[in-house]
Structure to design on (480 residues):
């Protein structure tokens, strides 16, 4: 019995050591595929394991406010990181902008979109009975979708057709599974392998919603700030930016 | 915001427990009296929702009622709209999710009946149907009531399945549990607290009435375990 106990404790200690090499990252759901790829590449390169938790930015924001043990927070906007900075919960002053996102209209194969390839005309097609967006209360892309609909003069016409995903991933899944005929989702998810072949997408006019500048911050309660900074540098490096571009993000400042 | 969500939740719970009474009674009767050798497989299937996480059920229901499945296409052709993100969709998910909570107490109370009474009823020439209404149901009533109450309460507190197939539409699929989740995520703790407190007091009153009734009339609620 004693030997079992001792070996369990040694194992726990080793596990603890192993965990010390690990980064825990909270990331907006639009980064689901891009950041998984970046984390895998980074682990191959440096040996540092990056554990990713995805959710809506607002959801992650409230978790961090309540002391969730994340090292880094990749938001889908700049507002949530700024609010964390104002509360003194992050390292340094302002968030670093790592990417600019785009909103697209995604329609599943087999749903009639009519002849016109204008976003407004497609959205008004009778074949489109449900339009999935992320919950505007907690997801920046959901807010962008609402302001785009308002800008295009469709807000009242389509209000009864909207269904709300808990975050952009769920909104994309609603559309991908065919339960909603269309979705207003991030370009980064429309370019994901499981979405690419299942439907088509159209970019929304860039002036129809506020620019989706996405900010990242290091959490001040983190015990791995140096490792966090190193991963952040990697994501914003030329190599990291190339992956982000591949998933449709624009990388600011010509990096 | 609270009132539509509350009435919707209550409506869902009423519809689901009524449907489960209709589905549960024959199913429980069959489970209690059948001698089929593979019956245990059906018992296992009925009990699955107790152990399965709601995500498994939500995922399969979403796929099954979506246009990718024959059932989903049939329903769409019949009604002109899909089943996901509608009240009817929530009913389908909740009936599956609460099925064991209705069936198990009913089946247990039927199985515990004295078989001699049933034999006597048959000997006196009563049909099975008549025996069911005159003997089985009255004597098994505590279990039936427990089943209805449990499925009602279970539907009130449902979260995962609704989150996965509901689409969070205020007035149509936004139940109280989803509303509370939304309010917490939006950091609106004051409203979240008000909503949560309302649900908490409602459930407390409901359970208090039940336990009070049980004491008075010795209904034997919960005794099926």
């Amino acid at each position: 019995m004693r030997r079992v106990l001792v070996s369990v404790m040694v194992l726990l200690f080793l596990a603890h050591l192993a965990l010390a090499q690990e980064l825990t990252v909270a990331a907006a759901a639009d980064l689901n595929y891009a950041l998984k790829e970046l984390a895998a590449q980074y682990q191959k390169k440096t040996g540092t394991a990056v554990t990713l938790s995805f959710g809506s930015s607002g959801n992650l924001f409230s978790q961090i406010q309540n002391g969730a043990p994340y090292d880094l927070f990749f938001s889908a906007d700049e507002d949530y990181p700024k609010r964390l900075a104002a509360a003194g919960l992050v390292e340094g002053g302002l968030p670093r902008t790592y990417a600019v996102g785009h909103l697209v209209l995604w329609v599943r194969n087999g749903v009639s979109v009519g002849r016109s390839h204008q976003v407004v005309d497609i959205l008004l097609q009778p074949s489109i009975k449900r339009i999935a967006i992320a919950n505007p209360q907690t997801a920046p892309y959901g807010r962008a979708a609402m302001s785009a609909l308002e800008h295009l003069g469709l807000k009242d016409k389509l209000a009864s057709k909207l269904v709300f995903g808990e975050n952009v991933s769920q909104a994309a899944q609603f559309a991908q599974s065919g339960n909603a005929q269309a979705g207003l989702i991030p370009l980064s998810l429309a370019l994901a392998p499981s979405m690419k072949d299942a439907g088509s997408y159209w970019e929304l006019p860039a002036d129809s919603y506020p620019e989706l500048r996405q900010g990242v911050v290091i959490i001040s309660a983190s015990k791995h700030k140096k490792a966090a900074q190193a991963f952040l540098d990697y994501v914003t490096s030329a190599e990291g930016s190339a992956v982000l571009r591949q998933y449709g993000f624009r990388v600011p400042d010509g990096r | 915001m609270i009132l539509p969500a509350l009435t919707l939740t209550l409506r869902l719970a009423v519809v689901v427990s009524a449907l489960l009474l209709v589905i549960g009674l024959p199913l429980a009767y069959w489970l209690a009296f059948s001698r089929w050798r593979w019956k245990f497989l059906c018992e296992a299937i009925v009990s699955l929702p107790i152990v399965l996480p709601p995500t498994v059920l939500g995922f399969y229901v979403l796929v099954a009622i979506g246009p990718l499945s024959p059932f989903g296409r049939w329903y769409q052709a019949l009604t002109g709209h899909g089943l996901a993100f509608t009240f009817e969709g929530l009913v389908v998910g909740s009936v599956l999710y609460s099925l064991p909570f209705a069936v198990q107490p009913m089946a247990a109370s039927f199985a515990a009946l004295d078989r001699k009474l049933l034999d006597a009823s048959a000997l006196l020439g009563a049909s099975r149907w008549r025996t069911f209404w005159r003997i089985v149901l009255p004597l098994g009533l505590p279990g039936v009531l427990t089943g209805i109450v449990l499925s009602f309460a279970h539907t009130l507190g449902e979260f995962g399945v609704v989150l996965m197939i509901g689409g969070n539409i205020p007035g149509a699929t936004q139940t109280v549990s989803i509303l509370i989740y939304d309010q917490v995520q939006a950091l609106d703790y004051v409203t979240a607290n008000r909503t949560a407190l309302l649900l908490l007091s409602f459930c407390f009153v409901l359970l208090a009435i039940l336990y009070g009734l049980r004491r008075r009339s010795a209904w034997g609620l919960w005794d099926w375990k």
Q: What stands out?
A: Confidence is low (pLDDT under 50) at residues 220-225 of chain B. Chain B has one domain: 2-217. Chain B is about 75% helix and 0% strand.
